[in-house]
């Protein structure tokens, strides 16, 4: 009998955690796009900097190798030039390839319905529901068309992108910004 009573308390506590104050909650409805993932990856790269640094070093080394081959031969050779151009294309295109891969992973789920409230962020699709409390995030960054939330882990493995186009109610942008400012810092 004691077990049944404690289970009721647990279920009641879980139910009260899921209650959302509709006056402060902000709803977003959107279909993810590859550009959303690209914005999230770029923000993550600027915060983390290790990937950006490695790509720049890799590119500088290839530029140096290409210039040395030109100076050493006294003329432009086709093979090193083609390899150099492929490396430049790869370094430039890598984030776009990542964004396209993310889009393949999330795009099939259709429309996303995100609720941002003092309890955290709840994201629903026809296939899943994800609930994240504010303690998951180290902070957020606002771009021209998105809010990008970054996870607390050292490698920033989770990046949540909330596109502003998903806001459909008057005053939603200001309320969303106020909730984010209250529960997580800008980074």
Task: Give an account of the 3D structure.
By secondary structure, the chain is α+β, with helices and mostly antiparallel strands. It is built from 5 helices and 7 strands, in the order αβαααββββββα. The protein has helices spanning 2-17, 34-48, 50-73, 78-106, 172-183, and strands spanning 26-30, 112-117, 120-124, 129-132, 137-142, 146-151, 159-163. Strands 1-2-3-4 form a 4-stranded antiparallel beta sheet. Strands 5-6-7 form a 3-stranded antiparallel beta sheet, covered by helices on one side. The longest helix has 29 residues, at 78-106. Mean pLDDT is 85; it is low at 1-20.
Describe this protein with a few key phrases.
three-stranded antiparallel beta sheet; 51% helix; four-stranded antiparallel beta sheet; alpha+beta; 187 residues; disordered N terminus
């Amino acid at each position: 009998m004691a077990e049944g009573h404690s289970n009721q308390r647990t279920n009641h506590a879980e139910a009260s955690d899921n209650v959302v104050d509709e006056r402060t909650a902000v709803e977003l409805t959107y279909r993810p796009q590859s550009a959303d993932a690209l914005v999230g990856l770029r923000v993550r790269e600027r915060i983390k900097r290790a990937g950006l640094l490695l790509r720049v070093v890799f590119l500088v080394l290839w530029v140096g190798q290409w210039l040395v081959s030109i100076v050493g031969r006294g003329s432009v050779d086709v093979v090193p030039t083609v390899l150099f151009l492929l490396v430049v294309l790869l370094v430039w295109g890598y984030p776009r390839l990542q964004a396209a891969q993310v889009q393949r992973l999330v795009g099939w789920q259709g429309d996303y319905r995100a609720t941002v409230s003092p309890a955290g962020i709840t994201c629903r699709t026809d296939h899943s529901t994800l609930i994240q409390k504010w303690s998951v995030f180290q902070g957020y960054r606002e771009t021209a068309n998105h809010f990008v939330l970054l996870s607390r882990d050292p490698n920033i493995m989770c990046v949540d992108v909330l596109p502003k186009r998903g806001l459909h109610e008057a005053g939603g942008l200001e309320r969303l910004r106020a909730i984010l400012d209250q529960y997580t810092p800008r980074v």
